[in-house]
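Researcher: Batch entry, complex prediction.
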Amino acid sequence: MSSSFSGDETAPFFGFLGAAAALVFSCMGAAYGTAKSGVGVASMGVMRPELVMKSIVPVVMAGVLGIYGLIIAVIISTGINPKAKSYYLFDGYAHLSSGLACGLAGLSAGMAIGIVGDAGVRHPSFVFKIGMLGITSMETDLIALISCTQT
Amino acid sequence: MSGSVMLGESSSWSRALVKISPYTFSAIGIAVAIGVSVLGAAWGIYITGSSLIGAAIKAPRITSKNLISVIFCEAVAIYGVIVAIILQTKLESVPASQIYAPESLRAGYAIFASGIIVGFANLVCGLCVGIIGSSCALSDAQNSSLFVKILVIEIFGSALGLFGVIVGIIMSAQASWPAKPV
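Model: Structure tokens for the complex:
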């Protein structure tokens, strides 16, 4: 029995866990970014209420990270279909690594957006610079997302 | 690359996993879906509530408006309940010979992953909404025009719980157990 054991029955475990990692870690990053910059916006808004609407930019960017995680999680979980196409252990591990790549990139991007957003909104002249940093964070996540879809 | 060729070369994770009943994974998934979501909601309510009550000492007008932040946190717990109920309706009994069939293993893993997704996404969503809700209460106490603006940020935060629910439900559609032999 041991010579013909292939782990392919358990491959969906790793695949689904990859989808889970993609969404959960991206949501963690998005939550951190939203909460940290939101606190910054609120404390700045007490002094300068007219600048609050302009300072929502980092919050929106952090929210987009959650959407990236959602996209990858859906792509992975609909790709696990042993009836349509045989699902080997290789595919399971590939999906796990894609999901982890996207999720952890999203987590770090979200933390970056949060810390920069919190510090940046307190100075109104820095809003555009926050924009640039937020965009570079999202690009790291986008690169992970694109490489995930190649697997 | 089928993985079935070498003697003793196949993954030892798989050897261990294939012995665990899919019902174990399903049950843990359902428990995590509701348990961790409620943890997130409670954590968020505690963060918001303590700031709200403290700020209301000096500015009692903020209490009724800011209960909306508490309601946003509670919504996260309701998402967890809904998904846990959906997941437990996906459980079917299969005859003993089929419990370790590949299809039922896959169904067990799908329910597990779905539960993990919903639970932890709601946990971080509840935390996020709680932190923003507390700063919303504090800034509202200073300047009441800020309430609606900070509430916009809170709405962005609560979308994260919805993402978890969406993916959880999509994934639970994959949980198809083998059909009973006639």
